Amino acid sequence: MKRKRLLRRSAKWFALACGAYLGLAYFAAPEFWTLRDRHADTSAMEMVTRTPQGIAGDPINVGLVGTRTEIMRAFALAHWDTADAVTLKTAVEIGESVLFDRPYPDAPVSQLLYEGRAQDLAFEKPVGDSADQRHHVRLWQTPELQDDGRPLWLGAASFDRGVGVSHDTGAITHHIGPDVDAERDLLMRDLLEASVLASTREIKGIGATSSGRNGGGDAYFTDGKVIVGTLKP
Q1: What residue ranges do the domains of the chain occupy?
Q2: Given 99, 123, 168, 211, which is the most exposed site by the fewest CB atoms within 10 A?
Q3: pTM, rounded to two decimals
Q4: Angle, CA 98 vertex, CA 94 and CA 102 arms, to 5°
Q5: Which is more confident, 159 or 42?
């Protein structure tokens, strides 16, 4: 009987600890960062994505001109996989991929917002045997049409270097590598080698910074430029 009481008490404290962690990591801490950023001057941060809680995320560093069909074709030819949607099933699958080193080339990416909208498309290029490390990019279609009538897409490319907990909230997340410019250049190089780019140009991004931080609290540095590739029709 005494052992049963100890087990019940231990289970109770474990449940309380889990509840406290979930409340802190997924509710209290995100709300703190939301309140902190609510009154911040974001006029210079319009080329930065945000988490659903309003925390500044990965910088916008790539752009593409083309239709949705052309973009899907371009990434397929460049050997980048389309990321699955985030569901309970895919969340379990990516967890199994990381824990047991199983391939999952279509693993989902977390939701980020640009101008209040979640990404329209996401692509990834796995590194190794699991979803622990991968190159990936999120893309948003903008209302801006180019001279040829095709839309401009803006995106955030970064490298997931491993799974851990957010430095700001404690929630489970991927941590990104600090050199986001390298990811931008890798993506453009892959598209160029796939012979799907007609031309590239630079536009202004967030500006040069050596002390950026994304929604998981990961540090990054960048020259602040956005490379825009025009796809061949």
Answers
A1: 2-231
A2: 211
A3: 0.75
A4: 85
A5: 159
